Amino acid sequence: MPDCSNPLWPCAMTGAAACMAGFEGMGVIIHGSSGCYFYPATLLHTLLHSTFISEEDVIFGSEKRIVETIDELSPRYERLAVLLTCVPAVTGDDLKRMIGRDDVIIVDSPGFAGSFEEGYTRAVSQLPCITTGDVPGVNIDGLSLADPFCHGNAIEIERLLGKAGVRVATRFCLDRLDALGHCADNTVGANPDLQSGKGRYLGSMLGLDNIRQTVTELARYNPLDADAVCREADMAEERLAAACDKYLRRYEPPSVAVSGNFSYAVFAAGMIERYLDGAICTIASRNAVGPSPYNVVQTDDLDVITGLISSNDPDLVVGSSFERSVAPGCAFVGIIPPLRGQVRLRAQPLAGTEGALNFMEQVLNACIDRQKRK
């Protein structure tokens, strides 16, 4: 059974919270215990609410608790979403009957339902989206408050689309609640692991090749200047190649261990291999593994990840603070939470041209710092 408080990659309930809490005007209530509440509240860095059910509520029923919480919060939000956690799901609480209101969104998202991505997808499916077929522009999906690059990705992709002459309709899931009333027919993504299923998915903006392919595909449906974005991607690639060539004239290519969600991990491995001739020792994915040119191991077990890293003795580790802690002598770049011991104030992207440059800038600086320490 998935562990809701797994610090490496949380379960369905936290994924549902990340989705719903991304919409301004949405009040999110976690119908569960204090333990179910505090972990997502800490991870997502946003205001969540909870019924904080007790053992007595489990035995005698939690109807009074959920109704009181909804009545208290209703005046403060345009809409409320209630996320069902493990205990109410097991005891069979009929939330729809208990609440007795059609304007409250209910998401069946207990931890045992599966992964973070599963909970996120379940929550997206319950959003009151309206697509009329006449909304200009494009949606952005793959945005999650659990992602340290969420805000940066949204800003960067919107910038690139604006450069091509396309407006953004709805951002899943980082927008105002009323944006759900005018979703566009087409969608591009920041993170392919978190596709909303809203609109026609035309590709991701993660990686330079994907950017070119996605805007070219988008041009089939929207009048836009795809060449403007492709030229920027070409210029970014030239800058990457020049910086990496300069590094390789002084140092050997690094060996690399990567850990993260699948799409980010494969992106990171591909960038380092392509531009820095890095040797990819191992890739560990927190979530389900898809098609890839690499041998990717799916695991969220820190002992397994530690074994993969220690057995390969890499020069560079890409992942979270946990991977950094088990390989303190390696260069490190963070792409997945937790990222402890760092102050992060800027909205840094991983998607888009600036995201590609930002990532490789961090890789090069980390590797140079390690070389200086040797």
Question: What would you say this structure looks like, in words?
Answer:
- With 374 residues, this protein is of the alpha/beta class.
- It folds into 3 domains: 12-125, Nitrogenase molybdenum iron protein domain (Rossmann fold, 3-Layer(aba) Sandwich); 138-232, Nitrogenase molybdenum iron protein domain (Rossmann fold, 3-Layer(aba) Sandwich); 234-373, Nitrogenase molybdenum iron protein domain (Rossmann fold), CATH 3.40.50.1980.
- Helices cover 43% and strands 17% of the residues.
- The chain contains 14 helices and 15 strands.
- The protein has helices at 12-20, 34-44, 55-60, 63-73, 86-91, 95-99, 116-125, 150-164, 208-218, 226-248, 262-276, 302-312, 321-326, 352-373, and strands at 23-24, 26-31, 49-50, 79-84, 104-108, 138-141, 168-171, 175-176, 186-189, 200-204, 255-260, 279-285, 296-298, 316-319, 331-334.
- The strands form 4 sheets. Strands 13-12-11-14-15 form a 5-stranded parallel β-sheet, sandwiched between helices. Strands 3-2-4-5 form a 4-stranded parallel β-sheet, sandwiched between helices. It has a 4-stranded parallel β-sheet with strand order 7-6-9-10, with helices on one face.
- α8 crosses α10.
- The radius of gyration is 22 Å and the shape is globular.
- The chain starts with 11 loop residues before the first helix and ends with a helix.
- The model has no long low-confidence stretch (mean pLDDT 93).
